[in-house]
Amino acid sequence: MTTKINNPSEYKISDLVHNGELYDYINRSDDDLEFYKKWCSISKSKTSNSNSNNGSTDSTCLELCSGTGRLTIPLAQSGIDIVGVDYTESMLKRASEKAQAKNIAITFVQQDIRELQLKHLNKNFCLIFIPFNSLQCLYSLDDLERFFKQVKAHMANDGLFIVDIFNPNIKIMIDRSIGWKNMINFKMDNGKEVKITEQCNYDAASEINRVKWKHSIDGEETIEQLDMRCFWPLEMDAILKYNGFEVIHKFGNFDESKFTSDSPKQIYVLKKAR
Ligand SMILES: C[S@@+](CC[C@H](N)C(=O)[O-])C[C@H]1O[C@@H](n2cnc3c(N)ncnc32)[C@H](O)[C@@H]1O
User: Count of CB atoms within 10 A of residue 191's CB?
Assistant: First the structure.
């Protein structure tokens, strides 16, 4: 775990946005945890009787873009066998340190999800999930197609795949394009004062929301890029269909409410199309 894997496209998320230490101050929510606990358990029971052709068992879950283990660690703590994959060294380092401090053994792998290759683990996963809008870090159709192909190759026969992304909200994007909006202020344990403000600029041709985060750390300001691909609801249905997935559920939030125009999220529970 020594190299940082760079995304070669012009779109990117800056190092400071994916800095493990800062990330954990900013992202403290666990609104999605119970949802993933439930689906880890459903997928395990669905595949428990169907061992794969290669003799491996199918009771392990896989979190893609696992970051600092915000979900991976509590899921493992609740007894779920789980592997995490991410390509950012500082996020993985933070995840491993937190898991170690809690004495929890989790396999974290440094990989680019577009080149996912976990055959060495000899597992077919009962659930693969990519939470917290992380799919929105894949900017091109080529990225998406390579990614979905690898997901299917790692799923157990009766396995599930969950994708959780925003429902693009035009009003919010317009609102946040006018001036800098305050996002969060906090004091780190080392006493440093952090203030983050945001400005959005949606590019319709690429469907990428070119978000800028202005970090002020102890008064020193830097502008960080946070490019988020938007997926419009019917477009996302089509992308999944033409990449070989069948929609079992499409929820609008983690309470499993039906997806509607006003839903904040698009949460897909998928299986491989036969
Ligand atoms: C929004 S964070 C989500 C972290 C974690 N899943 C959570 O729920 O808090 C997105 C993560 O995706 C990772 N990431 C983005 N693109 C990736 C790629 N192509 N391959 C692997 N990891 C990627 C980043 O390093 C970052 O840790």
Answer: 7
Rounded-to-integer distance, Cα 98 and Cα 242, Å: 39
| pTM beyond cutoff 0.85 | yes
Q: Is the CB of 150 under 6 A from ligand 1?
A: no
* Region 215-236 average pLDDT: 97
pLDDT in tens, 21-34: 999 999 999 999 99
- Ligand 1 center to 229 CA (angstroms): 14
Domain hosting 148: range is 20-167+231-272
The whole-number pLDDT of residue 107 equals 98
Domain presence at residue 2? no
Q: Quote the number of domains for the chain.
A: 2
Q: Is 72 in the pocket of ligand 1 (CB under 6 A)?
A: no
Whether residues 235 and 224 fall in one domain: no
Pair (57, 159) in one structural domain: yes
114 in contact with ligand 1, CB cutoff 6 A: yes
The alpha carbon of 51 is separated from its chain's Cα centroid by a whole number of angstroms, namely: 27
